[in-house]
Here is the input.
Amino acid sequence: MSTAGWAIFDLDGTLVDSQPHVLWSVHETARAMGASDVQEVRIGPPLRELLRTALSTSDEAVLAQATDTFKRVHDQAVGPGCKPYGGALELWNTLKAAGIGLAIATNKREAPARAIVTHWNFSAALPPMVCADSSVLAGKSGKAAMIAVLLGQLGADPGRTLMLGDSHEDMRGGQENALGLLLFAGWGYGEYKGLGERTASPADALAAAQGFYSAMRQPAAARLAQLPDNG
Here is the structure.
């Protein structure tokens, strides 16, 4: 348990740029299935919906085959294929060196998520992680459920925990769990909808995080002394 605080990260669009590899995997899936016309897709929807759009089909048997094919193609080179954003490793390592506990909540499946984190050496040991297919979710889904599970596993104080992600789902999940700070990764794939503090780069997010943890370490009297005198 970290007494300095915790930071929960999304993965795709926050720590790593997975879009090129996902799009390549979609096209490879279509080619393997003999589909010549692939529609443009946007990263974010669940895999089955992404393939439904890309292949322009609602045939469940075709989608089941496409899903299996995609997983096989995608997972073969997912580590090197999903590169960290500039400054993401520095953000991660700086917080880690400061004693902040680090965890990941991602809609990615556990096997490829672990492959990415291991390949890019985000941690010597795998960080606490809850993924879309993690058994600890017990049938639940979504970032709010993932964050709740992580808070329970870590024994983390929500008020001393921040969430950094690039989707409104990330921000809502943090809000529903009463996290102390929500940081929106403006460099990712999601559209900012006014919830959380928008950050333009990993360096910007690091500065906001450092301010958050620094404020928590100040004695109560010092914090009160900084408040404006409205009398």
